[in-house]
């Protein structure tokens, strides 16, 4: 849990994901932002869309 955080999705609840310092060990604004970035990366991968940052 200290590395991966808590699960960000709930079984049976489609199109829901929870990110932020409540789901990652440590907390802080950078960790919360990274949590959101990682989830967008995952969603892009699942949708076969390229992940791009600006
Ligand atoms: C006193 C203090 C000082 C800090 N100082 C720093 C610092 O200097 N540097 C740093 O990097 N970090 C700092 N942090 C940590 C940082 O503030 C948090 O890690 C960061 O704000 C987490 O962002 P978040 O969006 O994940 O969660 P949150 O900021 O907690 O946002 C969650 C949001 O969800 C809303 N919400 C909750 N339940 C529901 C619901 N059922 N329906 C709808 N909305 C809901 C809440 O109202 C809230 O707006 C500090 C924290 C505290 C408490």
Number of helices: 1
Based on DSSP secondary structure assignment, what is the total number of beta strands?
A: 0
Round the mean pLDDT to the nearest integer and report it.
Answer: 91
User: Largest sheet, described in full?
Assistant: none
Low-pLDDT segments: none
Q: Strand-and-helix sequence, N→C?
A: H
**Structure ligands:** flavin-adenine dinucleotide
Termini separation (Å)? 30 Å
Percent strand equals: under 5%
Inertia-based shape:
flat
Radius of gyration: 12 Å
SSE-based structural type: mainly alpha
Helix content: 25-40%
Account of the protein in words:
- The chain is an all-alpha fold.
- The chain has one helix at 29-46.
- The chain contains 1 helix and no strands.
- It is flat and about 30 Å long.
- The protein binds flavin-adenine dinucleotide.
- Residues 20-22, 27-30, 32 line the site of flavin-adenine dinucleotide.
Short description:
This protein has one helix at residues 29-46.
Which characteristics define this entry?
1 helix, mainly alpha, flat, binds flavin-adenine dinucleotide, 54 residues
What's the arrangement of secondary structure elements?
Elements: H1 29-46
The chain binds flavin-adenine dinucleotide (FAD).
Flavin-adenine dinucleotide is lined by residues 20-22, 27-30, 32.
């Amino acid at each position: 849990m200290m590395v991966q955080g808590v699960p960000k999705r709930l079984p049976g609840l489609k199109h829901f994901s929870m990110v932020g310092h409540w789901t990652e060990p440590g907390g802080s604004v950078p960790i919360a932002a990274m949590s959101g970035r990682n989830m967008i990366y995952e969603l892009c991968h699942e949708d076969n869309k390229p992940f791009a940052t600006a």
